[in-house]
Amino acid sequence: MLPADSSEDAEQQQQRKLESKELVNKSMLALTMLVSIIDATPTMIFLEYFSMLKTFPDVPLILIEDILTKRDDMERSQIKSIMENLKAKTSAESNTAMARSAANANTVFSKLIHYNLA
Length: 118
What we know:
The chain has 118 residues and is an all-alpha fold. 74% of the residues lie in helices and 0% in strands.
């Protein structure tokens, strides 16, 4: 029979492994959703962003703008129009109770220091 300390250590190790797997899964989901925004047609970016926002409520809008400016298939005026629509819808959504509770959630995007300072 194992001593109590050894059993607790094994449980703690198992818990850390589970937390690590969850973090990896959440990070991969975030990357997958970012890729879907990168691959989206200009008309679908709006839907892709709000799908992502439901899962990751702290995704910085400036990150999306930065990604869009790197795309060579979109003109600056098109990006500006998309960002204005996203900002308007995001500010309208922030008035709802769901958005207020979701805004307190910290996800993988809360660790993006560069984008969270902006």
